[in-house]
Design goal:
It holds the Pfam family Peptidase_S13. Helix content is about 35%, strand content about 15%. With about 525 residues, it is α+β, with helices and mostly antiparallel strands. Helix 5 packs antiparallel against helix 8 and helix 5 packs parallel to helix 9.
Amino acid sequence: MNRWVRSLDAVDTGVRAVRRRWYATPLPRRRDWQAVAGSAVVGLTVAVTAVATTGPWDSGQRTAERGWAADREPDSGQGHTDDGRPDDGTAPRPGAPPVLGALGSESSPPSGKGLGKAFKKLLKDPALGNRTTLSVGDALTGEELYASGGGDAVVPASTIKIATGAAVLTALGPEHRIPTRTVWDAKKKRVVLVGGGDPTVTEKQFASLATATARSLKKRGLKPTALGYDTSRYSGPDRHPIGINDNIAPLTPLMVNSGRTDDSSKGPAPRALDPSADAAERFAGLLRDRGVDTDRTVAAKAAKGWTQSIDGREKDLPGSGGNDGGGGDDGRPGTELGVHRSAPMSSLVERMLVNSDNDIAEALARQTALATGRTADFGGAEQAVRSQLKKLDLPMKGTRFADGSGLSRADRVSASFLTELLARAAEPDRAALRPLLTGLPVAGFNGTLGGRYGTPDTQRGAGLVRAKTGTLTGVNSLAGTVVDADGRLLTFALVTTGAKDSRAAQNALDALAGRLADCGCR
């Protein structure tokens, strides 16, 4: 027995020595090591539960499917995320010293008592505002380990995007792509540009669609007199209730680069007042550059001979010529001239989460509505999102999904709802939800967490915390996963209201999540 005790003491002494050495290491090097080690242990959890059933995944998409997509559509969404760091040799190292233990199921999860003790002092930080609700769960078992007001439905801000992503992945699956098409209206001798609801179409992709369309028109000897543009996929108001705002474009199924009028691809930016009309005018110019003069541009609906599946899924339709714009009968009113398909849904969900992209979020909420036979407006989207989330057996009491982005203060979810949803994404039989984990920003490195976790109070979470952020005036939230000191993967959600200083509130939330990374909390 004494030998056993001495052995444990030796191990404990060694662990303390490693930790002292760790904290003495310069911060930049420590953050590099944390990113590698943290990504590795989280990856092990995802891999163990997913590979056996779905094959290897890369950024939320099966590698085999991604390779197929790259071969077929070189500009279809690969490399869609960017953490903004220059390629100057500062990328995380490919290996790391054994600072952190390996992730495994043999270590015990933290206890509720231990977590309460660990959080006690941090929860007294006045920067958190009037009220903080939180929940911590075990990703392996799905059990909620600790909660403080965890079941209370509160304004979640952008963390509701996790729910939006879960709903659309459940409804359509990770491989679905959103089409933007051109079809021929034989009766009125015009090309109709049909918006499918993809806000991520780039200038280059739009130009490729114009090339395919012009080639198809010339092949058939068709000479259009006009270009129509069809935005009938969406219903209801084309403005979010917050009104004109640089954080979101008008809600339309046809736009280029989310209606941005500058060269940005993420974050707040000035937006076109009518992205659909602007996109149509731009497309007419692209056709003109390719020898097709459409004379005028008008709002229109695609001809009756053209039908889109009501559930929003891709189908082989008569006259469909695919990406090359070929095939079809010249006399058929619904002949497809060309089509661009978005990145896979898995990639769109990841991009939405890492950059907190409001335009993608609202588009995915409407894709969920279309997939379930509902109108693509705020009301239809809320009903559809709720119907899909109910399938996941989540605590839905008090929830409200007034929008898909979290910009609305009418949204309501609980911290326990978010931790359980993240745990569902790690379950072996829910591989379709895996992008909810792989799309979470990494603390201190990319996305909306790229500029955080650099202070003495929070740096222990750098590379180990992966979480979706949320910010409205007076509301700050953080929900994601973290690897604790014993190598256990935990899910967590923190929501605070009434904070007067948003930056200070964010730092306080980061400190709470970082505390999870630094303790076993028995």
